[in-house]
């Protein structure tokens, strides 16, 4: 039981502290590479029964799953 809690915390920590910043930076760069200069927004939404982080840009209508 104790191990489960530590593992769960560890996973959340990994995603929030390590994976997420890399994924955000990557998504941001990919968006820039497409030639769009405006700043995309990130939002958490539930689509198709899955909660995910999306990158959204109103200028080029980009809408992609980040994580
Ligand atoms: Zn854009």
Automatic annotation (TrEMBL):
Locate the RPA-interacting protein C-terminal domain: which residues? 21-65
- Indicate the secretion signal residues: none
Keyword Cell wall biogenesis/degradation, does the record have it?
A: no
Task: Identify the domain of life.
Answer: Eukaryota
Picking any one GO molecular function of the record gives: zinc ion binding
Give the UniProt entry's GO cellular component terms.
nucleus
Keywords attached to this Swiss-Prot or TrEMBL record, sorted alphabetically, are: Metal-binding, Zinc, Zinc-finger
Q: Name the Gene Ontology biological process terms.
A: protein import into nucleus
Q: What is this protein called?
A: RPA-interacting protein C-terminal domain-containing protein
Q: Which species does the entry assign this protein to?
A: Salix viminalis (Common osier)
> Highest lineage ranks of the organism?
Eukaryota, Viridiplantae, Streptophyta, Embryophyta, Tracheophyta
